[in-house]
Amino acid sequence: MKYRRVLAIGDMHGKFTRLLNLIHKVNFDPEQDFLILLGDYIDRGDENMRCLRWAIEMSQKPNVIALRGNHEQMMLYFYMLGGSEGSIWLPNGGSLTKRELDIWLRREPDALERCLDFINDRPLYHHMLINGKEYIFVHAGLKPGVPLKKQTEESLLWIRTEFYQNYSGSAEVVCGHSPTPYLMPDRYYPIRFNNRITIIDTGSFLPRGKISCLDVISGQIWQSD
Ligand SMILES: [Mn+2]
After folding, report:
1. Domain architecture of the chain: domains with CATH
2. Rg of the chain's alpha carbons, rounded to an integer?
């Protein structure tokens, strides 16, 4: 199948208005385009559950892959494991998401189960050949020197500096996870490093932050206002 565009959308973190604004500009067509969502739908924003529900809806369309981010992982651990492994979610933005979810649960008691099933089913990366070129889409990144199939959840969802500095694989990697203004002051635009890494998390939850979408075929970028 030859796609018109292969699109990746970075971290949204509950910024639903910004997401709608971006989606309107991108105008995704499931008949011709392929879309990968890089995870971190929830936490830090004001409409976290709306973003999560949007991701659930989108994941049911053809030609859409929704990956798991570390924030979905933290939510899953909170409800499935509890204890110290689950405890990091609430202080990392989870308390905002939980407040919205608790209200929703009063009307739809099975909503939590649907969210957790969705998160549980998320792939941790998507590997594809596009016009003969190899691409890996992943929330955080890859541990350098480790084959893709041997990568751990910990690396795929959490890695930062070690990946940016030492990755030397031949595949192009498109990822989110690190807001670009944390890597380069005042930068709210995707960053591409020389070692074939493109980071498209442009700090959606920050006052001047944006949600970004990249078409890896043309290199075109769309951003929320
Ligand atoms: Mn994130």
Report:
1. 5-223 (3.60.21.10)
2. 17
